[in-house]
UniProtKB/TrEMBL annotation:
Gene3D superfamilies referenced in this protein's UniProt entry, alphabetically: HUPs
Protein's organism: Streptomyces cylindrosporus
Organism superkingdom: Bacteria
Protein name per its UniProtKB record: Universal stress protein
Family: Belongs to the universal stress protein A family.
Domain UspA, first and last residues per copy: 1-136, 149-288
């Protein structure tokens, strides 16, 4: 089944930027674009707008106008629209389930400092099973120019980052871009060493060569699948979030994983994704890992 790219709009400047980003990506990938808006009926006593059908008509008109505007900029792009009645986060999570990715807007702190996530954005990222891309107001196509990279974080075993790497390589292939794969490492506490881990480290020649070998192994199947995508391997000591942000200035898109962590109060965004979302100057794609952990 071919999935569309879905953009969530609400009339804000941020959501229009997200819609434009989604349209450009749909054109690159040869996919359809679905434009959705979630809304709930709000009675207004001060004005004559208490009728549900009247408000629904306003929303439909706004979504149709946004779709017409983006269609005029991308001839041949298949665009559909949907108005989803209900809580915004719940409806967007549902819309994402049938999408290649969900693209939404987020307020920015400033021209070079990342995103300000509201409760809806946090819930959508935490609960969706599909990639979510966040775009700030003012995002420009020029930021996708040649020479700017798709930066992706890799951690753990190859299977732990498979979905994240797949998204990064597919995006790079569609854009003719380079993938910069980043693996951060830190010195583990002495008590974390075991005879087995010490043996592996000795065989690898030390911690940094061990981490480099792990990154190379994780990238191998994606290099084979996408032989035309240039790849840069980036190994650096430090926290994953800090290392990723240190190369964010080179990125046209930053891709991070999000392990589905369930708690008593619902799903949670991991610390790396949370840090990157709040400080990256470029659009950020958050890709959920397949495995779910309990917290």
């Amino acid at each position: 089944m071919t999935r569309p790219i879905t953009a969530g709009v609400d009339g804000t400047e941020e959501s229009i930027a997200a819609l434009d980003w989604a349209a450009r990506e749909a054109v690159r990938r040869g996919l359809a674009l679905r434009v959705v808006q979630a809304w709930r009926f709000q009675p207004y006593e001060a004005i004559d707008a208490a009728d549900l059908d009247t408000q629904a008509g306003w929303v439909r008109d706004a979504v149709s106008e946004a779709a017409r505007a983006v269609s005029s900029r991308h001839s041949g792009l298949e665009v559909t629209t949907d108005v989803l009645e209900g809580e915004s986060a719940e409806q967007l999570v549902g819309a994402a389930a049938d999408a290649e990715m969900l693209v939404i807007g987020a307020r920015g702190h400033g021209p070079v400092v990342g995103f300000l996530l509201g409760s809806v954005g946090q819930q959508v990222i935490a609960e969706t099973t599909r990639p979510v891309v966040l775009v700030r107001a003012g995002d420009q196509p020029t930021a996708e120019a040649a020479g700017r990279e798709i930066v992706v974080g890799q951690e753990g075993e190859p299977e732990d980052s498979a979905d994240t790497l797949r998204f990064a390589f597919e995006t790079a292939a569609a854009r003719g871009a380079t993938v910069r794969a980043v693996r951060a490492w830190t010195l583990p506490p002495v008590f974390a060493y075991s005879p087995g881990s010490m043996k592996l480290l000795d065989e690898a020649g030390g911690l940094e060569p061990y981490e480099r070998k792990a990154l190379t192994a994780a990238l191998e199947p994606w290099r084979e699948r996408f032989p035309d995508v240039p790849v840069l391997e980036h190994i650096e000591m430090g926290s994953a979030g800090q290392v990723l942000l240190s190369v964010a200035g080179r990125a046209q898109l930053m891709v991070v994983g999000r392990r589905a962590r369930r708690t008593a109060v619902g799903a949670r965004i991991g610390s790396v994704a949370h840090g990157v979302l709040h400080h990256a100057p470029c659009p950020v794609a958050v890709v959920p890992h397949a495995r779910v952990t309990q917290a």
